[in-house]
Amino acid sequence: MNAQIFSIGTEILLGNIVDTNSQFIAQKLVEYGIDLFKMETIGDNADRLYKAFKECDGKVDYVITSGGLGPTPDDISKEVAIKVCDLQEELKLDKKSYQALIDYFNGNEESAMSNIKQAKFPKSAIILENTLGTAPGCILTSKKGTKYILMPGPPNEMKHMFESEVAKHISKNAILKSKTVKIGLLGEWDMARRIDLDRTEPTISPYITDEGPILRITAKADNEKEVDRQLDIGLEIVNASLTPYVITTQDVRKEKVLIDLLEERNEKVSTAESITGGLISASIIDIPGASNVISESYVTYSNEVKEKVLGVSRETIKEYSVVSEEVLSEMLVGLYNKTNSSLCIATTGYAHTGKVWIGVLYNGMKYTKLLQLNGDRNRVRLRTKIKVIDTAILVMRGEYENNIGI
């Protein structure tokens, strides 16, 4: 089975509203084993919407829409779908939907009448109750067999309607599951050359996220046991190909992995950030449980603060420059002397050129790395944060190479 998703509304095309509905629906279709043919955004234009629907009719099993079910003339989803389905049926008032309108407006029938368009449907329609808003959804079936599932645009209404109403009317084509594996330090190309990405049953696909590269293992079968077997095979392949760079196979952020390691060992982390300006400590603090492991965090952006807070030598800065391994090393040692934390993290770099030094000091051993990163300032800072978190995790696991004694 397959489907096409439409988000409907000129405000989406203008960029005034971010379309999160299509993402939600797509994720749900994956759970049902339904292949997604395409996602498309159409403005409030009846001719364009008719043409788009007509192109799908008979080619996909489901056309799933969000938006365009309001009471105003530019809300056209239902009318266009009825036309495409060629339903020669008079629109009739659905009493239950109309009563829901009256209840929504606290008994004010005048307000309910202004929205009465939303409560009218063809006789053959399956009506989808909306308990959170004024616009019921519906399912219409065309003469070519395509089912048009129409839902309201507000995300909370759409999500609730999908879960409580639409799910009952969608057939599970197969069982499909995915497993996400978060990878550390490797770039997408490095990751891809180490593992066979052309295989099927399961498929293994790389993605880049705000946490760096990930692999998604996807399995599809007629029964749960076979799906789980395929996922286990996929995990074995990934672990065999990418150890020690596998950070986690759980659906948690990498910072959570770091926090768990620290908590297990009853250890603390402190940070001294120059180029990242507090980004690393903030990403750790965002995770529940951070208060148990964070000791001290410093934004040592200027040379003066590096000298005053961390004891970095002015002569070292003059001789080697502030973005150097020598300065980074003194930042790490100064941070350790100040906090006595088991794990100390430091960064220094030039965001505009992408030259960055990152460092981790753990239980008396120092690990430093020169990075040359591409992108604008924010991208360089984000990628620096990702590399540092990856490094800290691998260091704590004893899986990071090139350790240097203090």
Task: Describe the protein.
It is a single chain. Helix 11 links the parallel strand 13 and strand 14. The model has no long low-confidence stretch (mean pLDDT 93). This protein folds into 3 domains: 167 residues, Molybdenum Cofactor Biosythetic Enzyme, Chain A; 74 residues, Alpha-Beta Plaits (2-Layer Sandwich), CATH 3.30.70; 144 residues, Maf protein (Alpha-Beta Complex). Helix content is 38%, strand content 25%. By secondary structure, the chain is an alpha/beta fold. Pfam families: CinA (PF02464), CinA_KH (PF18146), MoCF_biosynth (PF00994). InterPro entries: CinA (IPR050101), CinA-like_C (IPR036653), CinA_C (IPR008136), CinA_KH (IPR041424), Competence-induced_CinA (IPR008135), MoaB/Mog-like_dom_sf (IPR036425), MoaB/Mog_dom (IPR001453). Belongs to the CinA family. This is Putative competence-damage inducible protein.
Write the layout of secondary structure elements.
Elements: E1 2-8, H1 10-13, H2 21-31, E2 35-42, H3 46-56, E3 62-66, H4 77-85, E4 92-93, H5 95-104, H6 109-114, E5 120-121, E6 126-128, E7 137-141, E8 147-151, H7 155-164, E9 175-183, H8 188-194, E10 203-209, E11 212-221, H9 224-242, E12 246-248, H10 254-264, E13 269-273, H11 279-285, E14 294-299, H12 303-310, H13 314-320, H14 325-339, E15 343-350, E16 355-362, E17 365-372, H15 377-397, E18 404-405
Parallel strand pairs: 1-2, 1-3, 3-8, 13-14, 13-15
Antiparallel strand pairs: 4-5, 6-7, 7-8, 9-11, 9-12, 10-11, 15-16, 16-17, 17-18
Helix pairs in contact: 3-4, 10-15
